[in-house]
Amino acid sequence: MGSKNRIAKHILPIILKDRKEGQWYVEPFVGGANMIDKVGGNRIGGEVNEYIAEMWIALEAGWTPRSDYTREEYKYIKANQDKDRKLSGYVGVNCSYSGVWFTGYAGITQTKGGVRDYQEEAFRNVQAQSPNIKGVDFKHAGYDNLEIPESSLIYCDPPYANTSGYKDSFNHADFWQWCREKKVEGHTIFISEYNAPEDFTCVWEKEVKSSLSANGKGGASKSSTEKLFTL
User: Is 131 helix (H, G, I), strand (E, B) or coil?
Assistant: First the structure.
């Protein structure tokens, strides 16, 4: 949900334009890793959901999940998430409807366009992505307690205001203040959102279709204007 895969080709050249040699690229909201997997060099990916963080750590180390978890397995894993945290992270997203955390089982489904195996599609995507995350230092941390090297290049893709929730409530005012503090500390920072406070500058925007929407409802495909801000 809210993947940046489709717009990465537009915003990454802007974000990386003045990146210095050896400079750390940091994503405090790594999510589906659809931006950081297209960046080279020193990389840190922070993820507040400990299960998804464990999934990325395991995938980066070479772990291979299955592509065919049953509905019964899905229910068991959902009810016993701490038994195998990396597996819970994988199943919670890749085997769930619309990729939303344990929102409902997704398997082989008859759609208007024919039969689709959503788990197989997700598995293939993860397998294709895995080589591109080698070397990423994935960490279980919220944006506000992630250790960030000096003078880093930070890209944030936080939960958008007035859209479908992610896992917990999110204080947007605190986040924007944190961004200001990072700038004062000497970091370069970019943020994806629909809107930002007046002291942030929009450096790119484009209308895209997404399951997230600025009208506050998720699920169906809607058009919203994605924007990239800096400070």
Answer: helix
